[in-house]
Write a structure and sequence with these properties.
The protein is of the alpha+beta class. It has three helices and six strands; from the N terminus they run βαββαβββα. The chain has a four-stranded mixed beta sheet, covered by helices on one side. Strands 3-5 form a two-stranded antiparallel ribbon. The radius of gyration is 15 Å and the shape is globular. It starts with a strand and ends with a helix. The model has no long low-confidence stretch (mean pLDDT 91).
């Protein structure tokens, strides 16, 4: 796996502030950094109380790594981080974090979008 790709499948929440600080050290050449956070929606008139996300951690991690490697081979990226949570998630909890960085914003935006589309289809 590419050393500039970090993937985690985890029960615990991720800390956006900590990720931003860590990213500053890893993406010194990047002119663009795109963050995407997916959350459990709290919709009016919806009876959803929580979302139960099941995962075989190692298999999920390998699949996400493949998605990230495809993105790295398609776009000129400096860094990719994906953290995907599983377990019982309450309304408004974070589900997924995707960070892409590149010299130019178009690569970072397009890669982030493709990674999320691939995650949702798997």
């Amino acid at each position: 796996m590419n050393k500039n790709i970090i993937v985690s499948v985890q029960k615990i929440n991720f800390d956006l502030n900590a990720e931003i600080e860590a990213l500053k050290l890893k993406t010194k050449k990047a002119g663009a950094v795109v963050f995407f956070v997916g959350k459990v929606r709290d919709l009016a008139n919806d009876k959803l109380q929580y979302l139960e996300v099941e995962a075989f951690e190692e298999l999920a991690k390998r699949q996400i790594e493949e998605i990230c490697n495809d993105a790295a081979n398609t776009w000129d990226l400096e860094y990719i981080l994906v953290k995907h949570r599983f377990g019982r998630l309450k309304l408004n909890d974070n589900i997924v974090l995707v960070i892409t960085s590149s010299k130019h914003r178009k690569n970072a935006y397009e890669a982030s979008q493709q990674i999320m589309e691939s995650l949702k289809s798997n």
